[in-house]
Amino acid sequence: RQMTDNRERRIYRVTIIGSIVNLVLLVFKFIAGIAGHSSAMIADAVHSLSDFFSDIVVIVMVHLSAKPEDGDHDYGHGKYETLASLIVGLMLAAVGLGIFYSGISKTIAFFQGESIGDPTWIALLAAIISIIAKEGLYRYTIHEEKGIGSAALVANAWHHRSDALTSVAALFGIGGAMLLGPNWAVLDPIAAAVVSLFIIKAAYDLVKPNLDELLEKSLSTEQKRRITEIVLSTPGVETMHRLRTRRVGHHVAIEFHIKMDGDMTLRQAHEIASAVERRLKDTLGQNIHTGIHMEPVKR
């Protein structure tokens, strides 16, 4: 329980630091986008707003996922964190689609003769600050996640990285429009539309594994092969079958049947099953649930 509390506190600390930076950035970028006549920067600000909301989602869901097992949740509450990661990914996809639509609409309007405004230096400054801040948040979050093992933090880290990429596109668009003049103002919305495709791809990479978990997808073939090797190499285990695996948040649930000599005592069978469980935890980590059904070998 102490380990769980420490993990929860570390996730909170990382997420709260990110949310404070996101709040400051989104206000600054909205102001810079409006004052600097930059559609790319306004879109970038909307992306930061989604980052801020995703931080709130992570804080709430991680608190719920840290609750211990109870009568209604025999495997704990780990899937609340998976749900948080899925929500962050869906929010990221929605933002990417919104930025793409906005960029394409403004590009079409430009070529139809409409004025879309010329970006100014304050929008350029906001893009530079955003790149530095968001890339820094990405590296900090990924570094902290390595010692925690949180899908929600990974999702949030990539949300930071995608925001930095959006700001890079905004930087090129704004800088190009300022350097080349009003006839090239279209670079601003084009840059926003291009980077939105990378944001949508990042959203897909986040949504798919978490959706797989919620739909009870098994572990990979390689992971199941490794589990089988560990079980069958344990002295006393003759055969194994009906292996079933799934993820529960940052835990893994493993269930299987093993066959052993039917003439051994219950104590001996229990010791072998315990040895199997210890070896699995030593190899795969302590955050696993194991269900072992023992059967006698038919001679």
Largest sheet features = 3 strands, mixed
- Share in helix: 55-70%
> What's the β-strand tally?
3
Average pLDDT confidence is 81
Structure description:
The longest helix has 34 residues, at 2-35. This protein is mainly alpha-helical and 299 residues long. The chain has helices spanning 2-35, 39-65, 79-111, 121-145, 151-180, 187-214, 221-232, 266-284, and strands at 239-248, 251-260, 288-296. Strands 1-2-3 form a 3-stranded mixed beta sheet, with helices on one face. Helix 4 runs antiparallel to helix 5.
Summary tags:
299 residues, mainly alpha, three-stranded mixed sheet, 8 helices, 70% helix
Quick overview:
The chain is 70% helix and 10% strand. With 299 residues, it is mostly helical.
Ordered list of secondary-structure elements with their pairings:
Layout: H1 2-35, H2 39-65, H3 79-111, H4 121-145, H5 151-180, H6 187-214, H7 221-232, E1 239-248, E2 251-260, H8 266-284, E3 288-296
